[in-house]
Amino acid sequence: MAKRLMPLLNRVLVEKIIPPSKTNAGILLPEKTTKLNSGKVVAVGSGYHDREGKLIPVSVKEGDHVLLPEYGGTEVKLGEKEYHLYRDDDILGTLHD
């Protein structure tokens, strides 16, 4: 479903990663530890044009894991899944293993 929505300009479509609320042993984790503002980039726009007309590309690509702000973004529901649209400037950074 997410492939049908292509973000415009410098927008990034992100699927938030929801960490498990229970360990493999069955221990319930507190709500604070399950809140991590990260997500996987599903689709990106082409970028935006500066004052001279040069195209400034988006700094992330599809498949990147990114750190997101606590608030912001536009919630989009496609089918049963929820996605969020962010501007490229709003993304705080990329996460690497």
UniProtKB/TrEMBL annotation:
The keyword Flavoprotein does not apply. InterPro entries: Chaperonin_GroES, Chaperonin_GroES_sf, GroES-like_sf. Keywords: Chaperone. Pfam families: Cpn10. Forms stable complexes with CPN60 in the presence of ATP. Seems to function only as a co-chaperone, along with cpn60, and in certain cases is essential for the discharge of biologically active proteins from cpn60. This is Protein groES. It comes from Olea europaea subsp. europaea.
